[in-house]
Amino acid sequence: MKAGIYYNKKYFSDNKSYVERLKKLLAENGAESKAVEGCADLDGIDVLFVLGGDGTILTIAAACALKKVRIIGINYGHLGFLAEFEPEKLDEAVALVCSGDYQVQQRSMLEITCGKKTLLALNDLAIQRSTSGINFCNTVNLHAEIDGATVDNFSSDGIIISTPTGSTAYSLAAGGSVLAPDINAFIMTPVCPHSLHSRPVVFSGNSVVKLNSLDRSRPLALIADGRIAGEICAGETVTVKRADITADFITRDAKNFFNKLLIKLNKWSK
Length: 270
What we know:
Distance between the termini: 40 Å
Largest sheet: 6 strands, antiparallel
Strand order of the largest sheet: 6-5-16-13-8-9
CATH topology of the largest domain: Tumour Suppressor Smad4
Strand content: 35-45%
Helix content: 10-25%
Number of domains: 2
């Protein structure tokens, strides 16, 4: 087995002892390892150890999905919803991976198309006010359709399309429901809607969503997994559907989601 190591350089810029310890543990268990900087480094990698928080995992998740590399997260961030192990359990994580005695949880991803640009997102797509141009404080106006049927003309601070994985992130903070990771569904959540009837909508993962900008005066920001991916202008349409590929996460027990959720949400509330 060949393992890759991807880590948040912000956390480990001055102290790489955990990275070196991981390399040593992998070698002791008979596994090769190499540092991974990006998608090109994933060739030949079977499993990627990601050291950092959820944001670190999100930066490499799409590349891993494209290369069919399994992910195991070691939480050096705050909440770590996507991480399977805490740092003090690093030796257990290595032993689990090297033994092959683990489960793989396939996480649905979004395929987002706007014009000639196609993006992948593990957590969510958000459409919000753009920081460019004028009238930054204006509302975001979007026409939303699911499978050709109008859902709403949203007037809000933004709108989020979230996977089950992302339902515990921005969507949850905006009032959306939590979706179990094995559900074939997505959720559309308006951010601070300016109408009492505009509420989060859970819909089939087989559906196709189209969002059309109604804003004439300025572009809107297209944000995938927390990163600005571009802008959309009046009349442009963003199409969102389930991607054909999945992000595959190594887990000890796929059924422990609700136990993990309880622990993480309690930690979040403190």
